Amino acid sequence: MLAIERRREILARLGANGKVLVAELAKDFDVTEETIRRDLEKLDKEGLVSKTYGGAVSKHSSAIDLPYNVRESANVPQKQKIAQIIAGLIEDGERVMVDSSSTALYVIKKIKEKKNLTIITNSVKVLLELADKPDWTVLSTGGNLKKNALSLTGSSAEKMIHSYHVDTAICSCKGIDTELGITDSNENDSLIKQAMLHSAERRILALDAEKFDKKSFVKVCDFTDLDLIVTDSAPAERWIGFCEERSIGLIYENNSLK
């Protein structure tokens, strides 16, 4: 693994857990502890982490907004499982909104064999991914470019989204909590997700299982704003009951719709 790839994975772990330990990272990456300390020192100088004795913590805790290339390369097997499940839910001819999450990009890659889809997105990466799909209608939300996240946000993007009505909206988030609801790290991104969910007949939240019982900075929506939650593995039993009580479909690998 290249040093830059290792540091991206370290940032991804910090985004998920809030802290990392030098000894654990050295063992997981099969490198010396000194190598990990150099990685953490570089990330600290870049303002992305705060070094501590024996490790590091996220400088922004649950509100951290990681660069897109870091998010895209983190938890890839989980995202591929989620994308495979969602691909089975999308039919030819559907009109679909997807946000700028890295999970949404994996979904788009899995559904590229579908025919005659209409895609509305604020993701620059999704727009580039679909540049070779002449049989699809691909619409950009427009808006202000958030360079680090490769996303388009702002009032003009929200206005564009609200002017359409689609079959399905697919969004991700930084965390879900039974009391707080669905949360994300950035207000502008949260407003885009809200607009997409409000413009769709079927509203899908796609997230890897480690985001259950996590809270981030900005509330996106309540559970009443969702129809389906798609994740990579079974969450805690209480989450299964929680979703059943609220008539929210819960789908994960090797599991039929709950």
What does this structure look like?
It contains ten helices and 15 strands. By secondary structure, the chain is an alpha/beta fold. A seven-stranded parallel sheet has the order 6-5-4-9-12-14-15, sandwiched between helices. The chain has a three-stranded antiparallel sheet with strand order 1-3-2. Strand 4 (95-98), helix 6 (102-110) and strand 5 form a beta-alpha-beta unit. Helix 5 packs across helix 6 (102-110) and helix 8 packs parallel to helix 9.
Question: What's a concise summary of this model?
Answer:
It contains ten helices and 15 strands.
Features:
alpha/beta; 15 strands; 10 helices; 3-stranded antiparallel beta sheet; about 260 residues
List the helices and strands and how they pair.
Elements: H1 3-17, E1 19-21, H2 22-29, H3 33-45, E2 49-52, E3 55-58, H4 68-72, H5 76-87, E4 95-98, H6 102-110, E5 118-121, H7 124-129, E6 137-140, E7 144-146, E8 151-153, H8 155-162, E9 166-171, E10 175-177, E11 181-184, H9 187-198, E12 200-206, E13 218-221, E14 228-230, H10 237-245, E15 249-251
Parallel strand pairs: 4-5, 4-9, 5-6, 9-12, 12-14, 14-15
Antiparallel strand pairs: 1-3, 2-3, 7-8, 10-11, 11-13
Helix pairs in contact: 2-3, 5-6, 8-9
